[in-house]
Structure formats: structure tokens, C-alpha cells
Write a structure and sequence with these properties.
heterodimer; A: alpha+beta; Thrombin, subunit H; 12 strands; about 40% helix; B: mainly alpha; about 0% strand; globular
Chain lengths: ~270, ~170
């Protein structure tokens, strides 16, 4: 009890001394103010930081949501762009076909490629024109960038064409630059030109066009570009590989071209008079 | 004799650890309140006053240890407030000594009794600070302001005291 009272008196005097000495000792007067200000500054800083962090988290959530929406929108726009590009290409192809149609003096029947028949490697395509439209077996099929095939089977409302890379396809061709002639045949993936003697002037990059010999294919239409030329002493002819300038699978609309009968032309001339 | 002394020392150490833990708890509350509301922490609540009342009424701390914890609590409150060093320390040790005397005379185990004693402690604390302000600092405080301060502080501190009792049973 005595110790307790003595401790109380001691602490009382100490506290009183602190209160009264603040006038004389600056540290006692200013210390608490400085410490409390510092503590407040630290906590204000922490508060601001935590507020910023919370705000960033909320904003990040909003940004993620917005990002998701924008990605969906971007996907939609990409799809629209793809459709537009496809339409643009088709438009270009149709313009070329229209130009070709006007140039050719043959029968020209526009047709749509509606699908393929047979196995995938057979490269046979279905066209939506048949006997009733005037399509005949053997007629040429031309795309926007050159010859793409030949009519093989004709039915009432549709026909089947073989592709220019089909092994059963063949066409008389000539080098547009050097006028070297040969016969181009399908090899499955590309084409090759046969019957060109070894000494002939054929280079990689040369363009081969149809000659019109036989009257099946119109003359001067692109067939393919030389990808490889090999000269061999043992072989009788040059080994020339062509990359077709166009393929039937790249076209939705093609032209079926056939020879115009002689009689029809005369009748047209009479009508004009 | 040696065993008794050893037991006393162990009890003393565990009491110190418990008291330190309680002090740190109230200090943490003081610091957290500072982040969320500076006003609440300084003007309407006397966290260290609640600490002293809790130590005296809810734990086994009495005598000199209680005085020392009260003095430490008072100084801590002065530093956090940026007030005059020693004002809170003086009021807290006086309250602690008052409680020491009271505990020898009456039974303070009952929670209701503790609550009323806590109310008295908080009111006495405000009055003591008013007395120190008048005596040492030559400040004058109006009667209305004093009354409203006592009311608010007593109410808020008592609430905090009860919450602390509930948390730290």
C-alpha cells in the first residue's frame, strides 16, 4: 500500500513536471505535436494509397468488362470485314468475267459452282447449268483468271466439270513470250506441258495461254505459269511444270464457253440488216 | 519458499504478457480509428481511458502495475493527440489510483457494477482534464461545452468498454 502511494506520487510529480517544463524545454512542447503530425501524415498516405488501390481494382474490373465487349465487337467487325472482302473479290472476278464475255465470240453461259462430286482427290465440280441452258460435253470452263476446267458430264439442270489439275484434263497451249507450243495436262496438284523438244526457249515464270487449236478452248486465255523447267538428255521432251493461274475452287461464278455454230452467226447478221 | 517465488515470478510474467497484449489491442484500435475517422479517434473517444478502465475492472491488474500501465496509456494518448505531454498521463494515473482504492473497499466482479464504475471513470477523466486545463494552462471552458463533452465521451467510451468486454472475455 505504501509502495503504491509512493509510486502514485512519483508518477504524479513526473506528469506535473512534464506539463510545467514544456515552457522551458522545447522538446517537451513540440515533441507530441511533431509525432502526432507524423503519425497523421503516415496514415493519410496509407488511406490515400488504399483508396487509390480500391479505385484501381474497381476500374480494372470495368476495363476488363469493356475489353470483353470490345473483343466481341472486334470479332463481329472482323467477320463483316471478311464478308466485305469476299464480296469485293467476287465483284472483281465478275468484272473480269464480264470483260471476257464481251471479248469472246463463242457461246458464253455464266454458271455457279454449287459443289463438288466424287472423292476429294477427283477434283470434279458441279455447276448449276445443264442441257436446258445449252451446255454440252467438252465445253471449256473459264474463271476470272484463266481456264479452270472442262465440262465432262451434262444433265438436264446441271453439269459436272473436271478441274484443270485433273489427270484427265488436257489443253493445247503456247508460251506467251516465245510462242513455244505444247500440250498441258493435269497432274493432280499442278499441270505439266508435254511435247516440247529439249532445245526450246522456255523459262521459269513464263506464262502459257490457250492456242484455240481444236476449237474447244478459246485462244489467248491464261492457263498457267512455269514453276519448273528441267532438261534431261535421256528424255525426248522438256519436263515443264505449270502452276495454274486460276482454279475452279477459287471461283463461285464461272463461264462455260463453247464454240458458236456457224449458222447462228449468219442469222444474227441478217437480223442486223 | 523458492517454489513460491518461482510461481509468483511466472504469474508475474504471464500477467505482464496479458497486459501488454491488451495494451497493443487498444493501440491498434486507436491506430485504425485514425485511418477511418480522425475526429472520432481524438474528440469523441478516449481509447486509453477505456484501456485503463478495462485493465482495472476486467483483469487482475492492480496496484503499481496498474499505475504504470495507466501512465503509459496516458502518455500514448498525449502523443497521438499532439496535446500537452503529461495531461492525459496525470488524469489516467489519478483514475487508476482511485480504482485501486475502490477495489479494496467494494466487490467489482459484477458486470453491472463494472459498467457504472466505468461511467464514473470516464466522467472523472473529463473533469480532471478540465481541472488541469484551468490550473496549469489557464484555459477556460464553458459549462455547456463541458457538459456536452462529458455526455458524449461517457456514452461513446462506455459503449467501447462494453464491446471490449464482449470481445476479450
Amino acid at each position: 500500500m505504501k509502495k503504491e502511494v509512493a509510486s502514485y506520487i512519483l508518477l504524479f510529480l513526473l506528469s506535473t513536471a512534464l506539463i510545467t517544463l514544456r515552457i522551458k524545454v522545447r522538446a517537451i512542447a513540440e515533441g507530441p505535436v511533431l509525432i502526432s503530425t507524423k503519425i497523421l501524415e503516415i496514415y493519410q498516405g496509407l488511406k490515400q494509397q488504399s483508396t487509390k488501390t480500391v479505385r484501381s481494382i474497381v476500374e480494372a474490373g470495368k476495363i476488363l468488362e469493356e475489353n470483353k465487349l470490345l473483343k466481341t465487337k472486334l470479332l463481329e467487325l472482323k467477320q463483316i470485314d471478311m464478308i466485305n472482302q469476299k464480296l469485293r473479290r467476287e465483284n472483281l472476278q465478275l468484272s473480269r468475267l464480264l470483260g471476257l464475255k464481251e471479248r469472246l465470240k463463242n457461246i458464253v453461259i455464266p454458271a455457279e459452282v454449287t459443289g463438288w462430286v466424287g472423292e476429294y482427290w477427283e477434283k470434279r465440280f458441279k455447276l448449276n447449268r445443264g442441257k436446258k441452258d445449252g451446255v454440252k460435253e467438252g465445253m471449256a470452263v473459264i474463271g476470272s483468271n484463266g481456264i479452270v476446267g472442262q465440262i465432262r458430264y451434262v444433265y438436264e439442270n446441271y453439269s459436272v466439270a473436271i478441274s484443270n489439275t485433273d489427270p484427265e484434263f488436257s489443253i493445247h497451249v503456247e508460251d506467251f513470250r516465245s510462242k513455244v507450243k505444247g500440250v498441258a495436262k493435269g497432274t493432280g496438284e499442278r499441270m505439266k506441258v508435254d511435247y516440247v523438244p529439249p532445245g526450246m526457249d522456255v523459262k521459269v515464270g513464263d506464262l502459257f495461254v490457250s492456242t484455240g487449236i481444236g476449237g474447244i478452248f478459246p485462244p489467248g486465255v491464261y492457263v498457267g505459269r512455269v514453276a519448273r523447267v528441267e532438261r534431261s538428255i535421256e528424255e525426248k521432251f522438256l519436263d515443264i511444270e505449270l502452276i495454274p493461274t486460276d482454279r475452279i475452287e477459287n471461283n463461285r461464278i464461272v463461264l462455260i464457253v463453247g464454240e458458236r455454230p456457224v449458222g447462228k452467226t449468219k442469222k444474227k447478221a441478217k437480223r442486223k440488216r | 519458499m523458492a517454489k513460491r517465488r518461482r510461481r509468483q515470478k511466472e504469474n508475474g510474467n504471464s500477467n505482464f504478457a496479458q497486459s501488454l497484449g491488451i495494451f497493443l489491442f487498444f493501440l491498434l484500435v486507436r491506430m485504425l480509428l485514425l485511418i477511418f475517422s480522425e475526429n472520432l479517434a481524438s474528440k469523441y473517444l478516449d481509447i486509453m481511458g477505456v484501456f485503463v478502465a478495462f485493465m482495472a475492472l476486467r483483469t487482475n491488474t492492480k496496484g503499481i502495475p496498474l499505475l504504470l500501465w495507466a501512465w503509459l496509456g496516458g502518455l500514448t494518448e498525449d502523443l497521438f493527440n499532439g496535446a500537452i505531454l503529461g495531461v492525459n498521463a496525470l488524469s489516467k494515473i489519478t483514475i487508476a489510483e482511485g480504482l485501486n482504492i475502490l477495489e479494496r473497499k467494494i466487490e467489482v466482479g459484477n458486470t453491472i457494477v463494472q459498467m457504472f464504475l466505468a461511467i464514473a471513470v470516464f466522467a472523472a477523466d473529463v473533469l480532471m482534464k478540465y481541472a488541469i486545463a484551468t490550473a496549469f494552462l489557464e484555459e477556460t471552458v464553458s459549462g455547456n461545452l463541458l457538459l456536452s463533452t462529458i455526455t458524449i465521451k461517457v456514452a461513446s467510451n462506455t459503449l467501447l468498454f462494453l464491446i471490449s468486454c464482449a470481445i476479450m472475455r
